[in-house]
Write a structure and sequence with these properties.
Layout (H helix, E strand, L loop, with lengths): L11 H14 L12 H8 L3 H13 L3 E4 L5 E4 L4 H15 L3 H22 L2 H16 L4 H18 L3 H9 L1 H8 L7 H19 L3 H21 L6
Antiparallel strand pairs: 1-2
Helix pairs in contact: 1-3, 2-3, 4-8, 5-7, 5-10, 5-11, 6-7, 6-10, 7-9, 10-11
Length: 238
Amino acid sequence: MAEIQLIPLAKASNTLAAKLRRKILDGEICQGMALPNERDLAAQTCLSRTSVREALRILEADGLINIRTGRNGGAEVVRPDISTVERSIDIFIRGQGIKFQSVLETREAIEPPAARLAALYHNSNDWAKLTHIHQQMQADIENVEAFLKHNLDWHISVVQAGHNELLIAFAQAISRSVYEATNIQGFNLPHIRQAVVVAHQKVMDAIELRQEDSAARRMGRHINSYIDNVKAKKYPCS
């Protein structure tokens, strides 16, 4: 006789969270609306208050609700923001131990197209921010720690200037790994920092003139030059 395997049942809290998540994302429950309190949700769903509480915590972790405690507490639906993506990708990178090589390849895939978008769509505020960070890099070129921070801010600002929410989310999500990839002892020598400033200026010249092909090409050369130097010095890619 064939053996019938036990069919696992989904946790009640996960099922409720999935149902509420779908309603929120489909717009049935809109931003700013309050969910029923724990007691009412438990009565409506015939679940325990513990299961309801767990479901709400799942949605809070997803960035879909804010939970307020106290007498006037409750759960309010909110719009997911960029930090939701950042947090998830950062946890994935660190939890999976993503290789250095993958971080380099991700930058190579994201940043040249992002520079193209920046040339097309940047506004006066974007340009002012980019220029300010570039000036800070030049002023702090002898301070490696400050220089690296400005360098990261500059690259993020280029992506932000393209006004593509997904690219911005991905770029900011890998920013910690990007910083660690650039903070290599013995690699950030004075002549290298100066070359970075020059490369950034070339990218900015193309962005300012809205020459999208040139901006993408120059950013690609800048990123590829860094990757080639890392490989030439045989730094580990894991």
